[in-house]
Protein: Mth938-like domain-containing protein
Organism: Pseudaminobacter soli
Amino acid sequence: MSPGIVIREAHFPGRAPIDAYGNGGFRFADMSHRGSLLCLPSGIHGWEPSDPDALTRDDFRLVFEQAEEIEILLVGMGRELRLLPKPLREMFKAARISTDPMSTGSAVRTYNVLLAEDRAVAAALIAVD
């Protein structure tokens, strides 16, 4: 008997610039993804923060697991800039990761530039419509 459809976590095992964003998703590496993304040294992962308006350490589990490879984390907060909660900022500081929250569009553009410069950059990008 066939197991049917197997749903796996979205993961692209490489680093790639983001070609486009909007309509609730992103395009990169000749693929598209509906929803938010984590762009990390281990690749590009589908990301579903529990509450985009109240991000927590659990939302950034993969980032903290790869902290030794990340110097800068760009956080695309959606259409509007919002600050990360103070406890979360302190956790990133303790992990020696500089965080820079901004709109998702700004985060995508900055990520692409820093990636092209081969910097130790990661991005957490909340999808926008």
